[in-house]
């Protein structure tokens, strides 16, 4: 559903910074920092996944309860991130959430099918999260405050 400017944004914080009105979710510096911290944490988890290979739940005779819980978490996270991507207004925000959604989806597929069935899933997950960190830094940079020359010490 495209954004309709005649309706107020239910996620808006009430800030009226004209330059940032194109953001729907990451519409202030604090939200951008929180999103970026999450991306860094999940990138670390994804990189750690290289040392802990996944067997998947399709091939083993006994499925671990932890894998079922992890699949549920990935389904919820990927769904929420997909929804956030769909309600994002500007391209940077939409790309950020789409990259995070792809990463969570690759994590889900890796948990279901295992590393032997989908060897590139772990690499793509790390690539998507690394890209999300770059886009997140770009978004955060758009909130940087410029320091006027009068405020600089002599």
Give an overview in words.
- With 154 residues, this protein is mostly helical.
- The chain has one domain (24-143).
- 58% of the residues lie in helices and 0% in strands.
- Helix 1 (29-48) runs antiparallel to helix 4 (120-142) and helix 3 (91-113) packs antiparallel against helix 4.
- The radius of gyration is 19 Å and the shape is elongated.
Q: Topology of this structure?
A:
Elements: H1 29-48, H2 65-87, H3 91-113, H4 120-142
Helix pairs in contact: 1-4, 2-3, 3-4
Coarse morphology = elongated
| CA distance, first residue to last residue | 52 Å
Largest sheet: none
Tally the structural domains: 1
Residue fraction in strands: under 5%
- The low-confidence runs, each spanning 5 or more residues with pLDDT under 50, are 12-20
Helix residue percentage: 55-70%
Mean pLDDT: 85
Count of DSSP E strands?
A: 0
